[in-house]
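Moderator note: this is an archived Q&A kept for reference. The question asked for a predicted structure of one protein chain; the sequence and the answer are reproduced below.
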Amino acid sequence: MFKISQQLNIVGKRSGEGFVAHKAMLANTLSRCLADRLTIMDFTIGRKGLLNYVKALGGSNVIKIVPASTNGNASGEQVAEKRLKVVCGANTSFLADGAWIGEKTPMSFADVRVSPSNVVNPNISSLELAEAINRVLPFTGDDENRPVLQNVLVKASEGKLVLVASDGIRLAIVRLDYDEGVDNAVLVHQDDLKGIATALKRARRVNIGFTPSGEALDGVALIIETEAIRYKLLGSEGTFPAYEPLIPTEHTVMAHLDSVEAVKALASLKAIAENPKSFAIDLTIGEGRVLVASPDEFGSSIIPADTEGQGEIRVDGKYLADVLRACNSMVDLTLTNAYSPMTFSTNGYSVVLMPMASVRAKEQQEADKQAKAEATATAKAEKPTKTRDKALAKA
């Protein structure tokens, strides 16, 4: 469900009931808007049509838009009709309410506000926020039975802005510096975030914050304000799963490698896989390398790496490639054993990937369970002896 409202902040001057603006600045603002319908002085107009029209105008760098009345219609009758009058140099046009809006035009709206300037106090980097959104969006879910995973958790806590997304198999986390002093959180649907990252890359200043949504007593909305557009993203209902326990806190194996080279190595194995959309990969880490191989021994490739410890794990090759592409730099890969999640980390960005089942993973899990059971039995056997010894010592 599309739950984002927008306000265009057009830099210009009031002219009666209308306004005057620089044509290039107006076109730039319209191109950064995500809504398909604009509300201008009680008129609703298609954004894309208006943008194309503004770009096509010539003769002047200044454009004036005011409400006006016209006489006459297509049949020649003298009927007064209120329209928007657009003047640019020698060009004059009259736009009717509903211009460039058809039956298939999406129902997404943006209000237009005109002011001499728009002051935005930045509290986060626009490029960092855009990159953070792009890094977590690919890992949102599409399972209708778990709708909460179709959202991105945006949370302000302890001087950080944290973005979290998961599809049930992968968990992506980005942490950005954000010291606003107030902890808050909101679930934002993935569809509402699509397109915002591209618009943010063109923004000079960005302020991000939280505000009551107005739809519920405890509802929260996310506000992203730039010098051109103010986005208000209404929060979704539901509670995001507790993701912290899923992040491994200890590891026995580590590898520092180039994710770009790793993606190239996976591409060769994907090319020979029977099902390129889902193929298993065995990772063997140790002795200064990471060996990626097909379980069916169809092929293998070696990736140079700085390693600590030795271990192996089986993962889905497509999911692994997606994670490595999202990292797109040198990355630290850590794992505990063949049946626990593995973690990829780089510059405040982390992705947790669940392993696939394998004979090796089953053997390790059974061996660890047996060792734990034996340790518990030994501790229970020793407890009465320790208690008796303490009693004798007191006597």
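Archived answer notes: The two ends are 74 Å apart (CA to CA).
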